Amino acid sequence: MIKLKYKQLGEGENIVFILHELMGDCRNYEPCISYLNTKEYKYFFIDLRGYGLSKDILGEYNCKEAVNDILNLIKQKELKKITLLGHSMSSLIVQKFAIDYQEYLKKIILITPVLASGVKIKEEDKQNLLNDMQNDNKIEDIVKAANKRYNQTWNDYRIKLAYSSSTLEARVNYMKMYLEEDFSNEASNIKIPVKVIVGKYDFPVFSKIVIKKEFQKWYKDLEIFEIEDAGHYPMVETPVLFASKIEEFCK
After folding, report:
1. Domain residue extents for the chain
2. Residues near 24 by Cβ (< 8 Å), separated by ≥ 6?
3. pLDDT tens-digit profile of 140-192?
4. Which InterPro entries does the UniProt record give (predicted)?
5. pTM exceeds 0.70, yes or no
Protein backbone atom coordinates (compact mmCIF):
# COMPACT_ATOMS: atom_id res chain seq x y z
CA MET A 1 0.00 0.00 0.00
CA ILE A 2 1.32 3.44 -0.97
CA LYS A 3 2.03 5.77 1.94
CA LEU A 4 2.36 9.46 1.19
CA LYS A 5 5.32 11.16 2.83
CA TYR A 6 4.96 14.11 5.16
CA LYS A 7 6.49 16.36 7.79
CA GLN A 8 4.97 16.05 11.25
CA LEU A 9 4.76 18.90 13.75
CA GLY A 10 3.32 18.89 17.26
CA GLU A 11 2.10 16.31 19.72
CA GLY A 12 -1.48 17.43 20.40
CA GLU A 13 -4.60 15.30 20.21
CA ASN A 14 -6.24 17.40 17.48
CA ILE A 15 -5.01 16.11 14.10
CA VAL A 16 -4.73 18.37 11.05
CA PHE A 17 -3.76 17.06 7.60
CA ILE A 18 -2.41 19.84 5.37
CA LEU A 19 -2.13 19.56 1.58
CA HIS A 20 -0.33 21.83 -0.91
CA GLU A 21 -1.13 23.58 -4.20
CA LEU A 22 -0.13 22.98 -7.81
CA MET A 23 3.17 24.86 -7.88
CA GLY A 24 4.51 24.12 -4.43
CA ASP A 25 4.80 21.40 -1.79
CA CYS A 26 4.77 21.25 2.00
CA ARG A 27 7.55 23.87 2.02
CA ASN A 28 4.84 26.47 1.30
CA TYR A 29 3.91 26.34 4.97
CA GLU A 30 7.40 26.85 6.42
CA PRO A 31 6.90 30.59 7.10
CA CYS A 32 3.96 29.91 9.45
CA ILE A 33 5.28 26.84 11.28
CA SER A 34 6.79 28.85 14.17
CA TYR A 35 3.36 30.28 14.98
CA LEU A 36 1.34 27.05 15.15
CA ASN A 37 0.12 25.57 18.42
CA THR A 38 2.06 22.34 18.75
CA LYS A 39 0.77 21.51 22.22
CA GLU A 40 -2.88 21.11 21.29
CA TYR A 41 -2.46 20.09 17.66
CA LYS A 42 -0.54 17.58 15.59
CA TYR A 43 0.04 18.72 12.02
CA PHE A 44 0.86 16.52 9.05
CA PHE A 45 2.21 18.50 6.10
CA ILE A 46 1.58 15.98 3.34
CA ASP A 47 3.07 15.85 -0.14
CA LEU A 48 0.93 14.24 -2.85
CA ARG A 49 2.38 11.78 -5.35
CA GLY A 50 4.93 13.42 -7.59
CA TYR A 51 5.51 16.28 -5.12
CA GLY A 52 8.12 17.13 -2.52
CA LEU A 53 8.85 14.27 -0.15
CA SER A 54 6.57 12.02 -2.25
CA LYS A 55 8.17 13.04 -5.54
CA ASP A 56 9.39 9.50 -6.19
CA ILE A 57 5.93 7.95 -5.74
CA LEU A 58 4.50 7.32 -9.19
CA GLY A 59 0.81 7.41 -9.98
CA GLU A 60 -1.96 8.73 -12.17
CA TYR A 61 -2.01 12.07 -10.31
CA ASN A 62 -5.77 12.51 -10.18
CA CYS A 63 -8.43 13.26 -7.61
CA LYS A 64 -9.60 9.69 -6.98
CA GLU A 65 -6.05 8.51 -6.36
CA ALA A 66 -5.27 11.43 -4.02
CA VAL A 67 -8.47 10.85 -2.03
CA ASN A 68 -7.59 7.15 -1.62
CA ASP A 69 -4.02 8.02 -0.56
CA ILE A 70 -5.30 10.35 2.16
CA LEU A 71 -7.78 7.72 3.34
CA ASN A 72 -5.00 5.13 3.49
CA LEU A 73 -2.84 7.44 5.58
CA ILE A 74 -5.68 8.04 8.03
CA LYS A 75 -6.18 4.30 8.38
CA GLN A 76 -2.46 3.58 8.67
CA LYS A 77 -2.25 6.09 11.51
CA GLU A 78 -5.39 4.60 13.07
CA LEU A 79 -7.02 8.02 13.33
CA LYS A 80 -10.72 8.53 13.99
CA LYS A 81 -11.44 12.11 12.96
CA ILE A 82 -9.20 14.80 11.54
CA THR A 83 -9.39 18.31 10.13
CA LEU A 84 -8.40 18.31 6.45
CA LEU A 85 -6.91 21.42 4.85
CA GLY A 86 -6.29 22.02 1.15
CA HIS A 87 -4.74 24.93 -0.72
CA SER A 88 -5.93 25.92 -4.20
CA MET A 89 -5.59 22.77 -6.35
CA SER A 90 -5.76 20.41 -3.37
CA SER A 91 -8.90 22.12 -2.05
CA LEU A 92 -10.75 20.25 -4.81
CA ILE A 93 -9.31 16.99 -3.45
CA VAL A 94 -10.41 17.95 0.07
CA GLN A 95 -13.97 18.65 -1.07
CA LYS A 96 -14.15 15.32 -2.85
CA PHE A 97 -12.77 13.54 0.22
CA ALA A 98 -15.48 15.20 2.32
CA ILE A 99 -18.13 14.03 -0.13
CA ASP A 100 -16.95 10.41 -0.04
CA TYR A 101 -15.56 10.00 3.50
CA GLN A 102 -17.19 12.62 5.69
CA GLU A 103 -17.20 10.26 8.66
CA TYR A 104 -13.43 10.74 9.06
CA LEU A 105 -13.63 14.53 9.25
CA LYS A 106 -14.39 17.14 11.88
CA LYS A 107 -14.33 19.94 9.32
CA ILE A 108 -12.51 21.04 6.20
CA ILE A 109 -10.43 24.17 5.65
CA LEU A 110 -10.04 25.49 2.12
CA ILE A 111 -7.34 28.05 1.28
CA THR A 112 -7.86 30.15 -1.88
CA PRO A 113 -10.03 27.27 -3.09
CA VAL A 114 -11.02 25.81 -6.42
CA LEU A 115 -14.79 25.42 -6.68
CA ALA A 116 -16.31 21.93 -6.50
CA SER A 117 -17.27 22.52 -10.13
CA GLY A 118 -13.62 22.95 -11.08
CA VAL A 119 -12.23 25.70 -13.29
CA LYS A 120 -14.31 26.14 -16.42
CA ILE A 121 -12.60 27.33 -19.60
CA LYS A 122 -13.12 26.62 -23.30
CA GLU A 123 -11.81 23.29 -24.56
CA GLU A 124 -9.33 24.97 -26.90
CA ASP A 125 -8.02 27.18 -24.09
CA LYS A 126 -7.74 24.14 -21.80
CA GLN A 127 -5.64 22.20 -24.29
CA ASN A 128 -3.44 25.22 -24.93
CA LEU A 129 -2.90 25.70 -21.20
CA LEU A 130 -2.02 22.03 -20.64
CA ASN A 131 0.38 22.13 -23.58
CA ASP A 132 1.92 25.37 -22.35
CA MET A 133 2.45 23.91 -18.87
CA GLN A 134 4.99 21.57 -20.45
CA ASN A 135 7.03 24.52 -21.66
CA ASP A 136 9.50 26.27 -19.39
CA ASN A 137 8.00 29.73 -19.75
CA LYS A 138 4.40 29.03 -18.66
CA ILE A 139 5.15 28.72 -14.96
CA GLU A 140 6.96 32.05 -15.10
CA ASP A 141 3.89 33.64 -16.69
CA ILE A 142 1.53 32.25 -14.04
CA VAL A 143 3.80 33.28 -11.16
CA LYS A 144 4.19 36.82 -12.47
CA ALA A 145 0.46 37.17 -13.05
CA ALA A 146 -0.28 36.07 -9.49
CA ASN A 147 2.35 38.24 -7.81
CA LYS A 148 2.29 41.64 -9.45
CA ARG A 149 2.63 43.43 -6.10
CA TYR A 150 5.95 41.80 -5.25
CA ASN A 151 9.54 42.13 -6.37
CA GLN A 152 11.60 39.93 -8.68
CA THR A 153 13.26 38.15 -5.77
CA TRP A 154 9.85 36.83 -4.69
CA ASN A 155 9.01 35.82 -8.26
CA ASP A 156 12.34 34.02 -8.64
CA TYR A 157 11.72 32.14 -5.39
CA ARG A 158 8.21 31.05 -6.43
CA ILE A 159 9.38 29.99 -9.91
CA LYS A 160 12.26 27.94 -8.50
CA LEU A 161 9.94 26.28 -5.99
CA ALA A 162 7.39 25.49 -8.68
CA TYR A 163 9.93 23.59 -10.75
CA SER A 164 11.71 21.86 -7.87
CA SER A 165 8.63 20.79 -5.94
CA SER A 166 7.14 18.36 -8.45
CA THR A 167 7.56 16.29 -11.57
CA LEU A 168 6.27 17.63 -14.86
CA GLU A 169 3.82 14.74 -15.19
CA ALA A 170 2.34 15.41 -11.74
CA ARG A 171 1.93 19.15 -12.39
CA VAL A 172 0.22 18.67 -15.74
CA ASN A 173 -2.14 15.94 -14.54
CA TYR A 174 -3.22 17.77 -11.38
CA MET A 175 -3.90 20.86 -13.50
CA LYS A 176 -5.94 18.64 -15.82
CA MET A 177 -7.82 17.43 -12.74
CA TYR A 178 -9.19 20.81 -11.76
CA LEU A 179 -9.88 21.76 -15.37
CA GLU A 180 -12.01 18.65 -15.91
CA GLU A 181 -13.46 17.45 -12.59
CA ASP A 182 -16.88 18.64 -11.42
CA PHE A 183 -18.36 17.49 -8.09
CA SER A 184 -20.84 20.34 -7.71
CA ASN A 185 -23.85 18.02 -7.92
CA GLU A 186 -22.55 16.17 -4.83
CA ALA A 187 -21.16 19.12 -2.87
CA SER A 188 -24.33 19.76 -0.86
CA ASN A 189 -23.82 16.32 0.73
CA ILE A 190 -21.08 17.88 2.85
CA LYS A 191 -22.71 18.65 6.20
CA ILE A 192 -19.60 19.32 8.31
CA PRO A 193 -18.25 22.88 8.79
CA VAL A 194 -16.49 24.37 5.76
CA LYS A 195 -13.96 27.08 6.62
CA VAL A 196 -12.43 29.21 3.86
CA ILE A 197 -9.55 31.68 3.62
CA VAL A 198 -9.17 33.90 0.58
CA GLY A 199 -6.73 36.69 -0.26
CA LYS A 200 -7.91 40.14 -1.33
CA TYR A 201 -5.24 40.36 -4.04
CA ASP A 202 -5.75 36.90 -5.53
CA PHE A 203 -7.02 36.16 -9.05
CA PRO A 204 -10.74 37.07 -9.51
CA VAL A 205 -11.69 33.37 -9.77
CA PHE A 206 -10.52 32.94 -6.15
CA SER A 207 -12.12 36.14 -4.84
CA LYS A 208 -14.42 36.29 -1.85
CA ILE A 209 -17.33 37.39 -4.06
CA VAL A 210 -17.00 34.39 -6.39
CA ILE A 211 -16.34 31.86 -3.62
CA LYS A 212 -19.23 33.07 -1.46
CA LYS A 213 -21.68 33.13 -4.37
CA GLU A 214 -20.97 29.51 -5.30
CA PHE A 215 -20.15 27.96 -1.94
CA GLN A 216 -23.28 29.21 -0.21
CA LYS A 217 -25.30 27.19 -2.74
CA TRP A 218 -23.72 23.99 -1.48
CA TYR A 219 -22.47 24.46 2.09
CA LYS A 220 -24.84 25.34 4.91
CA ASP A 221 -22.16 25.56 7.63
CA LEU A 222 -19.83 27.99 5.84
CA GLU A 223 -17.41 30.65 7.08
CA ILE A 224 -15.25 32.75 4.77
CA PHE A 225 -12.40 34.95 5.95
CA GLU A 226 -10.62 37.36 3.62
CA ILE A 227 -7.04 38.36 4.41
CA GLU A 228 -6.70 41.99 3.39
CA ASP A 229 -2.97 41.93 2.64
CA ALA A 230 -2.60 38.58 0.87
CA GLY A 231 -2.99 37.09 -2.56
CA HIS A 232 -2.80 33.38 -3.40
CA TYR A 233 -0.27 32.49 -0.66
CA PRO A 234 -1.55 33.75 2.70
CA MET A 235 0.59 31.21 4.58
CA VAL A 236 3.67 32.95 3.13
CA GLU A 237 2.42 36.52 2.81
CA THR A 238 0.78 36.82 6.26
CA PRO A 239 2.07 33.84 8.26
CA VAL A 240 1.12 34.98 11.77
CA LEU A 241 -2.45 35.81 10.83
CA PHE A 242 -2.73 32.64 8.76
CA ALA A 243 -1.58 30.41 11.63
CA SER A 244 -3.88 32.20 14.07
CA LYS A 245 -6.88 31.80 11.79
CA ILE A 246 -6.17 28.12 11.18
CA GLU A 247 -6.16 27.50 14.92
CA GLU A 248 -9.37 29.44 15.31
CA PHE A 249 -10.97 27.35 12.57
CA CYS A 250 -9.71 24.12 14.14
CA LYS A 251 -11.27 24.75 17.54
Report:
1. 6-250
2. 87, 158, 161, 162, 165
3. 888 888 888 999 999 999 999 999 999 999 999 999 999 999 999 999 999 99
4. AB_hydrolase_fold (IPR029058), AB_hydrolase_sf (IPR050266), Hydrolase_4 (IPR022742)
5. yes
